[in-house]
Design goal:
By secondary structure, this protein is an alpha/beta fold. It has two domains: 2-30 and 97-271, Rossmann fold (3-Layer(aba) Sandwich); 32-91, no CATH class. 37% of the residues lie in helices and 20% in strands. The chain is built from ten helices and ten strands. It is globular, with a radius of gyration of 18 Å.
């Protein structure tokens, strides 16, 4: 859901010819070998992709928004040499965004974890218009805004390993909007505890946000035993009418990706457009 929505956000921003800066605060390694991931470091584990992009991979007909996303992943997978019917090489958000970038667009990628940062540097060693920093993306964002282009799309996709993660996100958004009020923010979050997410929304709205909505996808009922029941994406300063693209796309995904009864998709405006 996150990557499909990011593709739509970039396409919408590219309606204007002027370039923009894409900032990824927690970029990861850029691409992933699904076969290696399934093997794990020491023991084999159940592959995750069959219940994700695997459910879209072989479908003859996809909604236009999802066909665009899957087409990008498929072309990248084949370019890296995969000739098998199932996907193997999956582009993370930095690589996916690089596939979409025009000559006038730029990428600024941050990754604090040393091993991941090293892989990210190697992934983009020969790419122009891409800056990679082995640094804390929350702090690094301050040096990126406002960019010369005066336009920016910022993805905040942290691991949510610390109890203060939501608070750090809110502080980063507050600082970022102070530096570039028109910046588009896309903030990914897991759906584990509803109370924590609602508190996160309250903290965001206390900033006197510009227009913003939360797109959520749940693959099981909220009472299901599965710990991570889905995920969400807050979009601040959304491109014009992007909600009309994302809502039906997300509803389709909720049906296809559901792992038990009760899966659903919602789009909730935190601050409505005027």
């Amino acid at each position: 859901m996150k990557h499909a929505a990011l593709v739509r956000l970039v396409r919408a921003m590219q309606r204007k010819t002027r370039g923009f800066l894409y900032v990824d605060t927690h970029a990861g390694r850029g691409r992933y070998d699904l076969e290696t991931a399934a093997r794990g470091d020491t023991l084999e584990r159940k592959a995750e992709w069959p219940d994700g992009i695997g459910r879209l991979w072989s479908r003859a007909k996809l909604p236009e928004a999802l066909a665009d996303y899957v087409g990008l992943v498929r072309a990248y997978d084949q370019k890296l040499g995969n000739l098998e019917p199932q996907p193997r090489f999956y582009p993370g958000s930095p690589r996916l965004m690089r596939l979409l970038m025009r000559p006038q667009d730029r990428l600024a990628l941050f990754e604090k974890q040393p091993t991941e940062a090293s892989a990210l540097r190697a992934e983009f060693a020969r790419s122009s218009g891409v800056g990679v920093q082995a640094a804390d993306g929350y702090a690094g964002l301050r040096g990126q805004l406002p960019p010369p282009e005066k336009r920016a799309l910022v993805l905040i996709d942290p691991p949510f390993e610390g109890k203060d993660e939501f608070s750090r996100v809110v502080k980063t958004v507050e600082d970022g909007l102070g530096r570039l009020p028109s910046a588009v923010f896309a903030i990914w979050y897991p759906l584990t505890e509803r109370a924590r997410v609602d508190m996160f929304f309250d903290e965001l709205m206390a900033l006197k946000l510009p227009p913003a909505f939360a797109l959520e996808l749940e693959i099981v009922d909220p009472q299901h035993a599965l710990k991570m029941k889905g995920c969400g994406l807050v979009v601040i300063n959304p491109p014009w009418e992007i909600d009309k693209e994302l809502a039906p796309m997300n509803s389709w995904l909720a049906e296809v990706l559901a792992q038990a009864p009760g899966g659903r998709a919602t789009l909730r405006w935190l601050v409505r457009e005027n």
